[in-house]
Amino acid sequence: ILYQxxxxxxxxxxxxxxxxxTTTPLPIKTMVDKCAFNFNSLxxxxxxxxxxxxxxxxxxxYRGEVAFNDxxxxxxxxxxxxxxxxxxxxxxGPSSLDTINLNFDSQNKLLFTxxxxxxxxxxxxx
Length: 126
Hints:
It is a single chain. By secondary structure, the protein is mainly β. It is about 5% helix and about 45% strand. The chain has one helix and ten strands, in the order βββββαβββββ. The strands form three sheets. A four-stranded antiparallel beta sheet has the order 4-5-6-7, with no helix packed on it. A hairpin with a 2-residue loop joins strand 1 and strand 2.
């Protein structure tokens, strides 16, 4: 289970293993709404902002009081908790993307939407 907690004006992202009953804090700071599990794998992909402005999360983001400038998509191994950036978003679209609705299609393309403009984007190679 991937979940987030509000911590001191920011967020903390963690994985919880139901089988082992353990929690693994993740090294990235992002909203769980910016993440998706890949088909038939223990890999999670998350859009991660350059910085996380101090706010009342998640409500401030949902109400549009703060927006993010996501700069990369990270791959997280749910089994180990290891995380690494896999591609930069700067070359994908406009100078600022506030990424939501990450999903994979049948051809394993990562699909996502810019929250600000509702524009659909995709990235191949997963």
